[in-house]
Amino acid sequence: MAAEGSGLQRELGPGPKPDALCPEHGQGLGWFCGSERRPVCAACVGPGGRCRGHRVRRAKEHAEELRSTASAAREVVIQRLSLVRSLCESEEQRLLEQVHGEEERTHQSILTQRAHWAEALQKLNTIRSSLVDMLTHLDDHQLIQKEQEIFERTEEAEGILDPQESEKLNFNEKCTWSPLLTQLWATAVLGSLSGTEDVRIDERTVSPFLQLSDDRRTLTFSAKKSKACADGPERFDHWPNALAAASFQTGLHAWMVNVQNSCAYKVGVASGQLPRKGSGSDCRLGHNTFSWVFSRYDQEFRFLHNGQHQPLGLLRSPAQLGVLLDLEARELLFYEPASGTVLYTYHTAFPTPLFPVFAVADQTISIIH
């Protein structure tokens, strides 16, 4: 039997002589067992070997296949990055051309307006001189006879002062809006948690209907009002809300929230002026001028602000929700990291300071860090 095994080993051959040896037979690992996904020796694949009957091949062939697979994968990466780079360059060119066109349009509008007002001033000076001349040189009887002319001159002067398409003098910032750029920007910021803030809940603000975890990142809803919470001016006493401990005045900020366990929550930002006491809309997130939130209730998703509800037709419930706040660009963005989908964007001149804000009325939500 041993002679037969030795003959088969000679037939198979030892293969290349790698540095590592088989711990069982002390031979070179010149073969690869596809069933066990590990390198083996000729004795392992021979009669009586543990890999007898398995899918085996020479290690060199397997290594060549791996190199070929890696090379193909590398080509795919290069091709896709090249396509993304080309797309970004085209979008950059398009946006810059739009900005330049809007800049030129605004500049021409300013020149047109300047010419208009120069002409208007000349007309006003002419009318003024005419009226001064009448008042200086005409007696009372003559002034009465000139009443209609004076009235017409005065009415003409008032018409000259009417605004002339002044809205065209404003730079239209919509020329810089790009769904592609927004999605790539959101993916770049939220694609890695290293770009997100270390947001934690301010325990002084937590509603008595919520429980806060020890690390101050998880909020759990409780239908029974807790009596352990000491009331204070910062605490929400009716709605299940909580504010983050840190606020933002300027710059770009991002954070992510795990919302997969809750069917009723709100996530967004709120002004420090948001009232805390009572059951009125002034304390309810999204129902006042102090808060801007993404809201889920059962299978309804909405953006809420100042009592205005913007329905969001989502095809599925996001497990995680990313929030980007760019105070310089005056933009608030909600994003689903798993699919790279921008769920909603809102533009306004936000008051500062702004706090991340949370509400939960079912199960738990957690800030990811």
UniProtKB/TrEMBL annotation:
SUPFAM superfamilies: B-box zinc-binding domain (SSF57845), Concanavalin A-like lectins/glucanases (SSF49899). This is B box and SPRY domain-containing protein isoform X3. Gene3D superfamilies: 2.60.120.920, Classic Zinc Finger. Residues 179-369 form the B30.2/SPRY domain. SMART domains: PRY, SPRY. It comes from the Eukaryota. Residues 1-20 are annotated as: Disordered.
